[in-house]
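Model it.
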Amino acid sequence: MDNKVIYTESVAEDCLELGNNLRADDVMECQAAGFTGMKALFNSFLHSKICFSAKVNGKTEAMFGLSTEGQPDGFGLIWFLGSDECFKHPISLVRDGRKVINTWLKDFKMLFNFVDERNTQHIAWLKHLGFTFSGYRYFNNYRFLLFFKILTILSNWLSPSPSIITSKNSQ
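Modeled.
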């Protein structure tokens, strides 16, 4: 098998395929926020302006997206949920993740969210992507760390826009 990571625009079936195969840390984080993994996937998918699936050998191994609902103009709430398989491709996760973030920063002043402080693998990945951590808040007695990345002049001309990273509304 090829094991190459392929990105597609997400469809509802991707939530079903990934929902029963989420990483234990992602399930733990979803539960700490008050959701099952499946509910978190569907809510994120339905409320995202942009949503993509990462597939390995044709199987959905991760989903990620950006929501603007309830956010100030220029702010994007980003999210990522995946299986254990997705972290077996660290080079793709970092390289492609940087391309996604830099592309999204062309349209948004700030990308942000909170991550369960126990989800150390996601925290390390977010640091590799250049996110800053500052502050925290509690969800159901679990501490979640604020992470964000702000538009800089450099992000406007770093890495070309891959065709996989376009909004649902731009097609």
